[in-house]
Amino acid sequence: MNRMSEAHNRARFQARERPPGWQQARLACALSAVLALASAAAQEADQAKPAADPKDPPPPVAEAQPIPPSAAKRLYQSEPFDVITLDKTNDNKALKVLPLQLPERKLPEQVKRVGKIKVRLLEDRADEYEVAWRNIDKVDFFEELVLQEANEVVRQAGVLTGGDKPTEAQAKYDEAFEYYQWLLRFYPQTPGLQEAIQDYLFLNAGALFRAGRVEEAFAVLEELHSQNRGYRYAGGAQTALTAMERVGERLIGLQAEAQNYRAARMLLERLRRVYGDQLKVTAAWRDKLVAVAGAKRDEAAAHLAAGRFREAHETGQEMLRIWPALPGGREVVLEIARQYPLVVVGVAQPATAFDAASLDNPAARRGGYLLARTLVEFTERGPEGGAYASPWGTVQQSADRSELIFELRPQPSGTFTGYDLSRELLGMADPQSPAYRPAWASLMAEVRVQNVRRVRVRLRHPHLLPQALLQVQLRGHQSLGARYGVASQADNETRFEPAGTRPASAEPSPVIVERFYAEPRAAIEDLRKGKIDAIDRLLPSDALRLRNDESLHVAAYAFPTLHVLVPNRDSPFLANRVFRRALLYGINREVILHKGLLDGAKIEGTRVLSAPLPGGITSNDPASYAYDESISPLPYDPVMSAILLRLAEQQLGAAADKKKEPAPELKELVLAHPAGEMPRFVCKQIQTQWNVIGVKCTLRELSAGETQVTDGKFDVLYAEVMMREPLVDAAALFGPRGLAQTNDPFISLTLRRLDEAANWKEARSVLHELHRMLYEDVTLLPLWQMIDYFVYQTGLTGHRDRPIAFYQNVEQWRVVPPVQQE
Questions:
Q1: Which residues are 531's β-sheet partners?
Q2: What sign does the dihedral 624-625-627-628 (CA atoms) show?
């Protein structure tokens, strides 16, 4: 579509102003367009694309004639000369002479050809000769000879096209282009040049069509028609418009077969606007699409009447994809959405567990956020840490930060009181309870119930954000916090239905269906076809591309994801800090991130890290309070990596000798990673780069939805970590039971100091110390932080801008088909 639009717009622009030489400029533009199309198509030759139907009658090609051997040197590359052919008296001898100095390079009228003309022979230019006009039978100017040779190349290209040799034919058309380009530059007034170029465009369009390059063929024909609306090939019945009818019929058909209905509609509208009733294919295809959409509308209405809501939803969406402006269609879809709002979400990982507080499992975090509210929730980013609120009341700190005060709102059922809340808080401090949270247990000193709705919690020491430790589900009153429940799981789909009952006057919350896609491209294809309404995570390159689609809305999450490698410290090598640093030196993180994942695009907030702490999105992002910008990431240095590898082996060997044990042997490392295209690509790149430094590595892909290795059979694990609040998340990550639990006494002491920080200045200082320690210890191998994106149909309303989580305000989602504007 882009190529056709460009050719069309170029033709319209050229028609606005016509300075001297405008016709030659226009032809040059046409030729340039053809060459550009040919070049682009050659690069895409390995990609699958619909081919022209062999049943369709193609535009004509030249009649088959023997093809003489091509000359090694093209005529226009020679020194210019004219050819004078003498009369029979002089044996019709042909003389190659230097270009004749005639006005406008034209022969004088016959009556004026008297006397003699002075010439210099090409091979003997020192002497000047005189030739009587009466002895000259014919004069061929050099540019005319070049044009004849160009036309012969085009004839040969036509023969090759008829012989089903598209590659060789296109090479000939490219060769002819160079002839015509040369003529337009040096001899634009050559008689027959414009007609020859128009025939060239017509025949080249036929060759492109036969080769299955239908879109390019149509673009060339449009350019031809814009140059000569009355064009007829060889003066016969075949015109540019008749060829456009045939090629246009196939082009729109290909779009419809690929279910790219939006492109088909936009093409139909453009053809109607530009050509009116001249192209009958426009009205014919419009009627076809309207009829198909009408059948889908009636089918959706029948499903709705029978209570088959899911079938009604899918059929209604299909109808909108085909012809959104169909009379009565939008009303049917709105009624379906009113009776049974359904949102289908394509997910990169299925949720096999549900935990809204998970740091390293995006699917569990997404699913946990959907299923239940937490006692306290992170609502938005703030200038000093996040802002927190409770769904059941207010929670505030005392002025001296030594107490938390809960004020519960009256509940409709009256089942959740201050006494219930106190039991929840005490359970989190009980090591024997499933709800046990070590950080809360070390902070809480006493819980007092002042009345049925008021609870005060005394802390052992002042804390900057004690609310952040309470992002937990209610254990004793799970039904109170339930948002959704799992209704069914089958065939890579999980259906979630709203929990509880709703007031009769309230609009229903949508039913959520999560559909797992192992390949991102398949999810994007279904999104564009309307089979799904949203995708929860996108590759950065996909997000940048989809932003150009007006039917979709691409948005970013509030916080970046940290991509890290987690070492298995049960391995003596991975327990060695020098070895871990050697591995990090051996990864070219900049190339993998910026060249591989981002494809050269620059995305603010996406960058290589020096430690596994969030660096913020902008330069002055308050959420980056834990990151020390003065510490630069380790560069890619394979030489340093090799040196450190030898040093690590020496250290381990010396330690083994001291214990009188055999030295450990470095075997092939196992790099485990979650399923998915991005983890697979990243780990393959790391594997290749580690092989360069002499570290052999094999990859282990986990099952879909898994992010941790449960059997311990790995050396390094690729993980994606979300740290919204480093003040508390650092302890959850590096402290007891954390993903990267460490026994380093200095890091443990720093985490305790962080927990006891009296103000934000002190907290930032301690976190920067932690940054330095993590950098030196290589506790985790930091790769980069990346901005995560999601995408949804514009008809899905209620999404927040830069949400904390995908389902942050799912209750407000509404499915409203947009009014199509194309």
A1: none
A2: positive
